[in-house]
Amino acid sequence: MCGIIGYIGNNAVEDILLSGLKSLEYRGYDSAGIALNDNQGIDVFRAKGKLVNLKNVLNTQNLKNKHFSQGIGHIRWATHGEATIENAHPHTSNDGNLVLVHNGIIENYQSLREELTQQGFHFFSQTDTEAVVHLIDREYKKTLSLESAVINAIALLKGAFALCIMHHNEPDKIIAVRKNAPLILGLGCNENFIASDIPALIGKTQNIIYLDDNELAIVEKDAVVIKDFKGNILHKNIEKINLAQDDISKQGYKHFMLKEIHEQPRIIRSMITANMSTPFEPIHFNGINVEDLVQNVDKIEIIACGTSLHAAMIAKNIFEELCKIPVIIDAASEYIYKSHLTDAKTLSIGISQSGETADTITALKQARTHQAKILAITNRIDSTIVRCADFVFPLNAGIEVSVAATKSYSAQLAALYLLALAVAERQKCADIIKLTKIKQELFSIPNKMEEIFYSCNHIKQCAQKYSKYHSFIYIARGINSASAFEGALKLKEISYINANAYLAGELKHGPIALLDSQLPVFAILSPDGKIYDKIISNCEEVKARCAPLIALTTSDSFYKKDLFDDVLTIPSVSELLSPLLFTLPLQLFAYYFADCLNMEIDQPRNLAKSVTVE
Ligand code: F6R
């Protein structure tokens, strides 16, 4: 959450900061601000709301005659204090000479604030960050060195922080600090950059240094020195990134979400073919030795948040069915604070699109202290989760810009199917003919996904028809229960509609009381005979309460058509693999529903793509 950018060099500082912030807007958009340093002093500009509001503020300023040599910028996702101008970053010392931007949470800010207030510092915001700027200022006044002031101050901070700091008296440098919040350096020619994430540096440089926790960088125009928090110099590798502007453009689609939904067949196809050449040969992963992965493992735990947690729910079904290994799933935020059975015989799988979700990373670090083996499944091989893991499954889905996860979810599912199949093959825990059949079917999934796009118009019309309702219920049974949770999450996060998912068999134990003609029910009908009949009975119960009823089902398994007001179909598929296909119409339904309401689909309110606070 929150995006940080810093620049030092001869090019137009203001433009570089704004374009960097634009690429980081997925991290938060409650407010934005920049600070620019020239020979005269530091100018700070801040605005509530999206970046465009900051641009409007800047348009009213006459900055043309100024020559700025460095600047820092921030896009905020509010934690402490509302989204107001006073709480927007950069925050400034009382004398106006020191400014900083921060991503993370300072846990001891309250006591620091009291101490600094007693010492005569004045606070103007409700943020935790303002305590840091006054703390560094206090140390600067003692040491007259920005670097020493920063080192002294960060030793007193508890919590998570990525910081970019500059002082008017030291216009040759920006100091960047990382502890439990991501920060990277971009190296240019006579210019250098600091950013929360790679998209901010696309088109500016390809040479990157990843800061690790407890490191700081003194960034000058033509030099970068990295030190630990004690001031010892560290030698870090420069890595090359290979991303183009095209990777973060809408490519003609109205929204990133729609583009990313349509990317799914290609991503799944290339993941499958990268790991098995034909269904008749064993699955092989580049970089993961399956024998090592499961050696001495007697249980699997899967830890994730949000949509990634729904992928974990599906994985439990797959692993237990194919590998006969008990699987425990936990929301990372819960795992951290409860006692668990993790031990040296546990494989702990962390699933995270961003690889930066603080809860998931903390949970995996905890799992490691119990000697578990750690596997990270992530879309960002440059992320923190990778550094916590023994094994990494890269999703290679490309940058996901829309805040609502779509392509990363189906890539996570595909990865989990492949892993379970590979483990089942190696451990010989399932009949080889059965496994080959599943692999054959997996190969057919991308084409079937493409077929679903032929019915986009039908899904769109259905979404438009239902967009007048203010609440929704999703029901399913078995492996697709998680599909129902994911469908409801997609709808609520981009439409702000109250959408809840229930196990269809649980409806009658309470939620059925909600039903009337104003509460549509979206039923996902699993293809399997046994479950199919049961869920049809649940739908009869729904219809008897006059609730509008939508069916999502396979084209070949549908009967009782009259029961439903509307029917959406996917191509024929087995129960086990059906979540890979059901997810597409669910995403499209949510997308068209939100589009019909003119919502901010790619940047829904209150959300951020990368949740780097616990
Ligand atoms: C929903 C969504 C979130 C994320 C969750 C975990 O569309 O995107 O629920 O799934 O914040 O994020 P990652 O997967 O990055 O750990």
What's the short story on this structure?
Helix content is 36%, strand content 22%.
Q: Can you tell me about this structure?
A:
By secondary structure, the protein is of the alpha/beta class. It contains 18 helices and 25 strands. An eight-stranded antiparallel sheet has the order 3-2-4-1-10-9-11-15, with helices on one face. A seven-stranded antiparallel sheet has the order 5-6-7-8-12-13-14. β21, α16 and β22 (498-503) form a beta-alpha-beta unit. The radius of gyration is 26 Å and the shape is globular. The N and C termini lie close together (11 Å). The model has no long low-confidence stretch (mean pLDDT 94). The structure holds fructose -6-phosphate.
Query: Any idea what the radius of gyration is?
Result: 26 Å
Number of domains: 3
CATH architecture of the largest domain: 4-Layer Sandwich
Q: What is the end-to-end distance?
A: 11 Å
Main β-sheet: number of strands, strand sense, barrel status? Answer: 8 strands, antiparallel
CATH fold topology of the largest domain:
Glutamine Phosphoribosylpyrophosphate, subunit 1, domain 1
Q: Helix/strand/pairing class, anyone?
A: alpha/beta
Identify the CATH homologous superfamily of the largest domain: Aminohydrolase, N-terminal nucleophile (Ntn) domain
Strands ordered across the widest β-sheet: 3-2-4-1-10-9-11-15
Outline the low-pLDDT stretches: none
* Small-molecule binders: fructose -6-phosphate
Shape: globular
How much of the polypeptide forms β-strand, as a percent range? Answer: 15-25%
* Average pLDDT rating: 94
The CATH class of the largest domain is identified as Alpha Beta
Helix content: 25-40%
Summed up, the helix count is 18
Number of distinct beta strands: 25
